[in-house]
Amino acid sequence: MRKILFVLVSFIAFAVYSQFGPQMNKLLEERPYNFYKFLDTALKIHGVLDQDIDYLEQLIVFADENDYPIAKIYAFDILAIRYRDGKQIEKSIEYHKKAIKLSEEINNLEAQVVSLNMLGLCYRLISDIPNAIDYHQKALKLASSVKNASKSHYTTIGIAMNSVGKIYMELKQYKYAIEQFNSAVTLHEKINDITGLAITYASLGDAYAGLGKLDDAIKFYRKALEFNKTINSKVGRILCYDRIANIYITKKEYTQAFDAIETIYYETLILNEPKYLARIKATLGRIQMFMDDLEASESNLLEAYKIYKALKIDRSKFAKLCIYLSEFYEKKKEIEKAYSYFKQGVEVSEKTVGQQNILYVGSLISKYDSQSKEIKIKQLETDAKEKEFESSRIRTVLIIILITLALLWVILYSVYRQGALNNDKKLLVLEQQALQAQMNPHFVFNALNSIKLYIINNEQRQAVYYLNKFSKLIRNILDTSRNKEVSLKEELETMELYVTIENIRFNNEIEYDFKVDETLNLETIKIPPLLLQPFLENSIWHGLSSKKENKKVSLMVEKDSEGKAVLITITDTGIGREAAMQIKKTKSLNRKSVGIDLTEERLKTFSDNYIESSYIKYDDLKDEQGNPNGTAVVLRVPIF
After folding, report:
1. How would residue 173 be classed by pLDDT, with cut points 50, 70 and 90?
2. Which of 208, 443, 530, 556 could be stapled to 213 by a disulfide with Cβ–Cβ 3.0 to 4.6 Å?
3. Level-2 CATH architecture, domain 439-638
4. pTM of this prediction?
5. What is the pLDDT of residues 465-475, one digit of tens each?
């Protein structure tokens, strides 16, 4: 006999393992310790198996054997839901309490919050208002203490808020219900919980309907309906249309009420869920009563009555249905039946919301108000401290930024200043060298000799004329040498004096002319002093000195095509640069113009202070036969 019993037990164990073992082993492999992660993992691994009571009971044994308390809590809660769905509320409460106890032992706050919420729902279903509120409030308080909570945890908080609001609804405390629902809406929106928004907006509709604000109620029901369509919730759609239909009944708009119920009537039949079917039939029966279809009305109301009586849950709806049947039979003049249902409805209603519950809720509301004020004060203090800390942090950051910017500015300014000083120093050296080049002894000596010749030849007028020109040239050179830049007008006047003095030595054989664009304001255009002298010197001494005739020099000033610089072109009819170089090599006394290299460097340094660039370009001119016919030098001087 023992052998047979052992074989039988072994066979049962093997059968259970064959059915559930792989799923449990997979769960053990994953082994999540966060309760919400466990729920996700269990759903992913088991699918619909978690609805099987045998599996859940086996899961409890498995959890004990493998020291896995999270799995055991999960099994307790899901078993409780299965018993609750099977109308065994007391057994459901028993298993939720086991889950809560184990959660407390392992100090798992998330699991405690979930189990407390579900336990509160069980008490609400049997209209035990004090216990329902107590457990939901415990869930809320505990949930609020969790830091860095997950989305699932926030969803659980929203469910608790919604449940407390529904309890206030049953007690006709609509103001407090709306406060709870609005808080839940804010939370669900924060985490983008569409399901939570669908449920809570429907609850808000119920609260406004209780206040008699029927249009507002419909508005919230329609919002809930849209969210239910988004998540494709058939139950959600059924409940929304049922609520909308009841509002239209209250407004005595029976055709709209009938249309709303008709929209989901056949969908409810297909769903075949008794509690929803009873609800829809009750509403449809009322509509038919007001539309004088009494036979159909009686059939639907009585069918709803049988379902509610068999379910033994949701006593408030059963009480309302009894009142509806009383109104129906009163309309049919069947007073005895009307009284019987009315009496039954009143008795159920009194049991649902008795005087004890009303007194309890009164004290609870007072306590709730006091706690809310304390919470708000603490929250304000916390917010003030956080703002003060944030302000202090921002001030510190700003001070650091300002100090950094100041230091950066000092460094950049120092670099810029040093660069500017170096540039000024370089420019000063170049100007001194340029002055030395322009004031070379040969030029001064030869100019004075030429003037002396006029004196010797008794050409006093010519001598005085050129002596005045020479003295003015020397004065201009000395004056401009003290400045970094001069106006183009002053520069052209000085260059005209220079060419005049040089022409004495060529017996005035050189023809020269200066042409200026009339649109230019020469006084506002600045250039380095004596910039043009080396190029005019080269034209005269290297280009024209070796020619017998046709000695011409021209200087032209004009804007460039973009108007951002001036172009100064010096053109001579000399022998050209190549021939001049050959002659220069054969001379025993080489005359070298040292000013060209210095001038190029000065122009480059001067242009560094402008956006536009400068350049010096040489062009060797040819006649029709291709013979050298002079040189053109173009200087681009920026004005922007």
Report:
1. confident
2. 208
3. 2-Layer Sandwich (3.30)
4. 0.49
5. 888 888 888 88
